[in-house]
Design goal:
alpha/beta; Rossmann fold; Nucleotidyltransferase, domain 5; 36 helices
Length: about 900
């Protein structure tokens, strides 16, 4: 019979460990996710290693416990939990529910007490118990049947405490841990102990006298006058400290062990949560068995496959669906078309349509109205067959995104379900997923596509009504709809890549890697595999005797955070870090770009995600050209490989200067901020003058750096913790800095307060062009969720308005280029920057035209400012 195994996890401790071990991460909705991600990694490892039959995660119920009656300042020195962590606890609880893991908290008690009580009960009932925490106080629970795993640096590095290990480490038995804490205290919990008594002295005393009580009864036998005096003076404090450190093992826990049986993850919930949090790498680990929607029972449907495509099948208004299965539609084949109108339901097989001049003429006819799903995708797919889709009057995909950007739109069925329309099954359930994906027989395929066109005909009026109700019709018609065709044009055009230059860069990086490799070997005194953490660990920590900061089950940790801390200790560390950075640059960007160069065009064709982010910003994928690394010199040089597609042309780049701060000045109406921009002052210097109360000439580079961090931080709703991390200062100093900033710019403070109130009243905030972001958590009783929602309410109108402005500039630029009959092409949008390629003879006009158009995209209370540069490559256009 399988022995029962109970795993007990200290939820607060592991969440804190994960938060501080990983850099701040955000998903596409702006939610911080590093603690949840680290917690998930820990859970996955525990489930794999321990294979528990029973499991529970315990949380602290609040700040006050029964221990505060004994000592009011218990845990009094702890800093307030960073809001970036607080906002993640609801998601950690949601994660546990999705994983089918019990969780529990008990008023007036700590997680330690829950764990202590349940571990004792489990031992008494013959269970094997495993405790996971970052708090060494729990080592007092280790016994013949209970192992306590204490996290060390990193996420999954755990030190196992059995009674033998406690003895090896301290020379004590587990129950003496509380005596040790009584003597030495614990600064993390603000347990005072006996002043002047550290770990070594405490252990020495306990080895001699066995317990704290015996020590205090035998003070005369203790050697050392000062130590005797301290023990006598702080006798009561020592006993109180021991009491505080003692885990309660008979807490009034009402959980029955049988209720903690672990039956496995609830896969559907895990998939939904991972998608929401953006944990796509973890989603892959779930394998191909991730759930798909069960097909709904749908009514049969009639359709016609015309023997010959004639003008008679088209009408004044047509619901037209272009089916391309692969997300990367630049390289995917169209598998069919459907058209629904007042003349009937039509399925057009791919070859029949693409070989029909009548179909091509209709598709390109501006006067023939078409309602589609994802106009950009449809247009790019048809362009591969020299067909330019025109006459699109409505896009169901873009309309749905505008109405509620928080909705996860997987396909047309996602929108249909939202509006309680059940006329179509999801693509995932129809075609299958991953390796199981296949295109069904023509009759099934025809019905599926025709149902899509029919569904669009039902949804159009619903979507139009919501756009009008939300006052978003202009945003839809004047901004997003025309933008979709501009983006399609940019995607189809692509950007030219000098393959030979990329290869030369790869060769150059290879040479640098060999140079660094040789230097590392010289410094190490021998050759070894630098890419092997095990071999590198032996060199660094055994041969060179560098301090080992972290160990894993497989050996020494050589992670980036460990190496960065060791950098001052030895010259070899900098070389190894450079080696790794260059290696990643080569594999991810040099080799990665070479793989995605289109062999037909010689260009790289990224995909712009128009309907993804909640702020309205565009993102770029396959490849991500908005994220070419620029911090490392070799990274910046990668842009040298991006060149004009025609001889004697140049790359022209124009970007908005501090657009989000200018939007903030406009929306907040802060007179000082507005005047600073009107006077064309250096805004960071101006802020430093205001915050530090100094004259312009007295502003130091460090003052300006701090002012810059808070200027941009305010835009993103930065907290005192976030600012302290950016500037390397204490949270208190960062908090004071933010307070001085808000006192200096009262309009900004008023805007921040007002935006929260508006969000509470109406449930959403808007940009200058009426883009909405719904914030239901703004009225949550949960402090952490509410705090995150408040920051979102403050920063979304700024970020979203900046995104709207550059989108408007792209539309205006397309019109201006057409009006002036220019050959110049818009290639890329990189956040606040537009990248063009242009003939040399159009350069003089572009220098005037581009800034003029971009600076007048939207009228604000402050001037928009655009800087431009140009050159033979993207690298030179800086």
């Amino acid at each position: 019979m399988l022995k029962k195994k109970l795993v007990l996890i200290d939820g607060n401790s592991i969440a804190y460990r994960a938060f501080f071990a990983l850099p701040l991460l955000n998903n596409d909705k702006g939610i911080h996710t590093n603690a949840v991600y680290g917690f998930t990694m820990m859970l996955m490892k525990i489930l794999e290693d321990e294979k528990p039959t029973h499991m529970l995660v315990a949380f602290d119920a609040g700040k006050t416990t029964f221990r505060h009656k004994t000592f009011g300042d218990y845990k009094g020195g702890r800093q307030k939990t960073p809001p970036e962590l607080s906002e993640q606890f609801p998601f950690i609880r949601e994660l546990l529910d999705a994983y089918g893991i019990s969780r529990y908290e008990l008023e007036n008690y700590e997680a330690d007490d829950i764990i202590g009580t349940l571990s004792l009960t489990a031992e008494q009932n013959g269970y094997e118990v495993r405790v996971i925490s970052g708090d060494k106080d729990l080592t007092q629970l280790s016994s013949e049947h209970t192992t306590v795993g204490i996290t060390r640096k990193g996420i999954t590095d755990i030190e196992e405490y059995t009674p033998n290990h406690v003895n090896e480490k301290y020379g004590l038995i587990p129950s003496q841990i509380i005596d040790m804490k009584g003597l030495m205290g614990d600064t993390s919990d603000n347990i005072p102990g006996v002043p002047g008594v550290g770990e070594k002295t405490a252990i020495k005393l306990l080895k001699e006298f066995s317990s704290l009580e015996n020590i205090l009864q035998s003070i005369d036998q203790v050697t050392g006058k000062k130590l005797k005096e301290k023990l006598e003076e702080f006798k009561d404090q020592a006993l109180m400290s021991k009491e505080l450190a003692t885990i309660e093992r008979k807490a009034p826990v009402i959980v029955n062990l049988d209720e903690l049986e672990y039956e496995g993850i609830i896969r559907e919930k895990v998939v939904v949560l991972f998608k929401e949090l953006g944990f796509y790498s973890l989603l892959d680990k779930l394998g191909e068995d991730a759930p798909i929607d069960e097909p709904e029972e749908l009514e049969d449907i009639d359709y016609v496959v015309p023997d010959e495509i004639t003008a008679g099948i088209f009408s004044d208004k047509n619901y037209f669906y272009v089916e391309v299965l692969d997300d990367n539609y630049h390289y995917a084949d169209i598998i069919g078309f459907s058209i629904v109108n007042d003349k009937g339901n039509f399925y057009l097989p791919t070859e029949k349509a693409l070989n029909s001049d009548v179909f091509k003429e209709w598709a390109t006819d501006e006067e023939s109205s078409k309602v589609v799903y994802d106009a950009k995708r449809s247009e790019v797919s048809l362009r591969h067959h020299d067909i330019h889709l025109r006459g699109v009057v409505f896009d169901t995909f873009i309309a749905s995104y505008i109405i509620d950007p928080s909705e996860n739109i997987e396909d047309l069925s996602s929108i249909a379900k939202h509006y309680d329309v059940h006329t179509i099954q999801s693509d995932e359930s129809f075609y299958g997923k991953g390796a199981k994906r296949k295109v069904p027989e023509s009759d099934e395929l025809a019905k599926h596509l025709v149902r899509k066109s029919l569904t669009m005909s039902i949804l159009e009026s619903e979507l139009e009504n919501d756009l009008k109700k939300n006052e978003q019709a202009d945003l839809f018609k004047e901004l997003e709809m025309p933008l979709s065709l501009i983006l399609a044009d940019m995607e189809s055009t692509g950007i030219k890549v000098d393959i030979e230059q990329l290869r030369l860069m790869g060769d150059g990086i290879n040479e640098r890697l060999l140079e660094i490799e040789s230097k590392v070997y010289d410094l190490a005194g021998e050759t070894f595999n630098i890419n092997s953490p095990k071999q590198l660990g032996i060199i660094l920590f055994e041969k060179l005797n560098l301090p080992s900061l972290k160990k894993t089950k497989t050996g020494y940790s050589t992670s980036a955070d460990v190496l960065e801390k060791l950098a001052p200790d030895h010259e070899i560390i900098d070389q190894i870090l450079q080696y790794r950075q260059l290696g990643k640059l080569k594999s991810t960007y040099i080799e990665g770009l070479l793989k995605v160069v289109n062999p037909k065009t010689g260009n790289v064709h990224t995909r712009f995600n128009q309907a993804l982010t909640q702020t309205g910003r565009l993102s770029s994928t396959d490849p991500n050209l908005q994220n070419i690394p620029i911090r490392l010199e070799e990274g910046r040089k990668i842009r040298q490989a991006f060149i004009p597609s025609e001889k004697d042309w140049i790359i022209f780049a124009a970007d908005y200067s501090q657009i989000e701060l200018r939007v903030l000045a406009h929306i907040a109406g802060d007179e000082k901020l507005i005047q600073a921009f009107k006077d064309d002052l250096d805004i960071h210097t101006k802020t430093a003058m205001e915050v530090f109360h100094v004259k312009k000439e007295e502003v130091t580079s460090n003052m300006r750096r701090q002012a810059k961090a808070v200027n941009f931080g305010i835009v993103y709703g930065i907290s005192d913790y976030g600012l302290s991390q950016n500037l390397g200062i204490t949270r208190k100093e960062a908090g004071e800095f933010i307070d001085r900033y808000l006192n200096s710019y009262p309009g900004v403070k008023e805007y921040m307060d007002d935006s929260v109130q508006v969000a509470k009243q109406q449930g959403f905030v808007t940009t200058l062009m009426q883009r909405r972001r719904y914030i239901p958590e703004i009225t949550s009783r949960n402090f952490n969720l509410r705090s995150f929602a408040e920051r979102t309410a403050m920063n979304t109108p700024i970020q979203g308005s900046a995104a709207d402005i550059i989108k408007k500039a792209m539309i205006d630029m397309a019109d201006a280029l057409k009006t002036h009959g220019l050959k110049t092409r818009l290639l890329l949008q990189v956040h606040d920057e537009l990248i063009f390629e242009a003939p040399q003879d159009e350069l003089d006009l572009l220098k005037k035209l581009v800034p003029d158009v971009m600076e007048n995209a939207l009228e604000l209370k402050v001037p928009l400012k655009v800087d431009y540069a140009f050159g033979p490559t993207w690298f030179d256009a800086k």
